[in-house]
Amino acid sequence: MANDRLRDALERSRVSTAELALLTECDVKTVSRWLAGRVPHPRTRFKIAKRLKEDEDYLWPGANRAAAEVSDSAGVVQFYPTRGAVPPNLWDRLLDAATAEVGILVYVGMFLTEKPDLLDRLRKKAASGGRIRILLGNRDSNAVKQRSVDEGIGPETISAKIDQANAFFRSLGGVPNVEVRNHSTVLYNSIYRFDNDMIVNPHVYGKTAPMAPAMHLRKTAAYGLFNTYADSFEAVWHSATPSESGS
Fold this sequence. Notes:
Blueprint: H1 4-13, H2 17-24, H3 28-36, H4 42-52, H5 56-59, H6 63-74, E1 76-80, H7 88-97, E2 101-105, H8 110-113, H9 118-127, E3 131-137, H10 142-150, H11 157-169, E4 178-183, E5 189-194, E6 197-202, E7 214-218, H12 225-239, E8 241-242
Parallel strand pairs: 2-3, 3-4
Antiparallel strand pairs: 1-7, 2-5, 4-8, 5-6, 6-7
Helix pairs in contact: 2-3
């Protein structure tokens, strides 16, 4: 169904389809599709509504509600523009609340090693029956060296950081319910699981992990994003080898 409200708003504001295309960094054909009824991306809707001085819900009735419903069904609790934007207390709250499973998939995860009480907290959770699994990168793998080059820090820098991470977690060696492994996979996402909550940090070429987006996911009754990334974690886990840090 054609979006007559959008067309009328363009005419009232004397904004041409070409100008709208320039504003949204799209082509005129895309604007024509919006006028024909296609709904733009949320950020694009915001730009258009602001330029036309109209309410977004007026131009696209129900679009925000539909997006929220999709987000809820997929298990997305919150999206962050960078991992650095994740509130520090959220990491602590999720870790404290986890009783059955903590799973960490990274190459290094250096920011975790900066928590002075992390090892003690993991030991206590393991002592209470929780399963702790940590996946660090294989320092000698091609994937690790290539990632280091892609970040512009030289082929050996991430390998050296992995050495530090291995040394940090070494004291967990022999602790029941704790296992550390090294993997050689291309790390598409860092995954931090805390029972039925998870923070996923998708990686972006040429950017360090703190500068890439992060998603707080929660397990839902239906198969959602949480399950997708949990399955990915398991696949990497089964391909990894026991680390000298402990098993």
